[in-house]
Specification:
With 287 residues, this protein is mostly helical. Helices cover 74% and strands 0% of the residues. The chain has a domain of 104 residues: Serine Threonine Protein Phosphatase 5, Tetratricopeptide repeat (Alpha Horseshoe), CATH 1.25.40.10.
């Protein structure tokens, strides 16, 4: 178990706290928001050198460490942030992320301990801010992925999904679909996507996920193919699967339908956009 050293605690709680340079802090946060990690790192490190007891600075240093997959640094920074601001749900959530990444990298014997710490932080984040969809989604994901002896379980995940749906109908449909997919209840998962599309027929995320699920499950192949082809006519929203993935999933469905020539054309279309798209390349080799 990682604990803060006495020296660090003295640094955080005993050293005189200087007045925060608000302008410099806002500038650093803006750099982070502009996705300029190198510049943001330098800015926050400069602030931390004179203001080590500022939770926000430690928080952003931790988030930057998460972005570069440096789990050790992320744990260090985010534990400091939580020690300084234990009632901040955002900091608890990101610390949970740091513990989760550490668990993935850990050896067999230490993995359960890190996983338990991840679960505890997610639960605390939800306890502190029950209206945070992101916190509930993280806790739901933990419950879906963790074995029962580490507190996982689809029944617990379902409870979080229902709470998410009360807060955000769209996010709730996606959450429920994930759980039904994990349980191989594909008809129920597809129904969740259809519910979104009844309200928003052009919703890219729902169209893609419906097509993806059809490709994986083998159910409603024609409907899935139609949804994916509709994705090709839309602009890809931020943080959604790219058109390479759409072409690949179209190929998956066509291959299931026995149309190998059309499947080949779909895989080649994906590789034309991105020659390094390994999923399409592998599917093409196996065709």
């Amino acid at each position: 178990m990682r604990i803060l050293s006495v020296g660090l605690l003295l640094l955080l709680y005993v050293s005189p706290v200087q007045a925060l340079d608000e302008a410099a802090y806002r500038a650093a946060v803006e750099l982070y928001g502009q996705q300029k990690p190198i510049e943001a790192q330098k800015a926050f490190e400069t602030l931390a050198a004179t203001e080590p007891a500022h939770a926000g600075i430690q928080f952003y240093l931790g988030r930057l460490a998460l972005q570069r997959n440096d789990s050790e640094a992320a744990v260090t920074y985010l534990e400091r942030a939580v020690a300084l601001s234990p009632a901040d749900a955002r900091m608890r959530l990101r610390l949970g992320d740091a513990y989760g990444i550490t668990a993935q990298k850990a050896g067999l014997f230490s993995k359960p301990g890190w996983a338990g710490k991840c679960r505890d932080e997610y639960q605390k984040a939800v306890e502190l801010d029950g209206k945070s969809v992101e916190a509930r989604e993280s806790l739901m994901t933990y419950y879906l992925q963790a074995p029962g002896f580490l507190g996982g379980g689809n029944d617990k995940a379902l409870e979080q999904a229902k709470s998410i749906k009360e807060l955000d109908a769209f996010a709730g449909h996606l959450a429920l679909a994930r759980i039904y997919s994990a349980d191989k209840k594909f008809d129920l998962a597809l129904a969740e996507f259809e519910e979104i599309l009844r309200a928003e027929p052009d919703n890219y995320a729902a169209l893609f996920q419906l097509g993806r699920l059809a490709a994986i499950s083998g159910e409603q192949l024609d409907r899935g193919l139609l949804a994916l082809r509709k994705c090709l006519t839309k602009e890809v929203p931020p943080n959604q699967p790219p058109l390479t993935a759409v072409h690949w999933r179209i190929g998956n469905i066509l291959e299931r339908q026995g149309d190998k020539a059309a499947a080949r054309a779909a895989y080649e279309a994906a590789l034309k956009i991105d020659p390094k798209f390994s999923q399409a390349a592998d599917s093409l080799k196996k065709l």
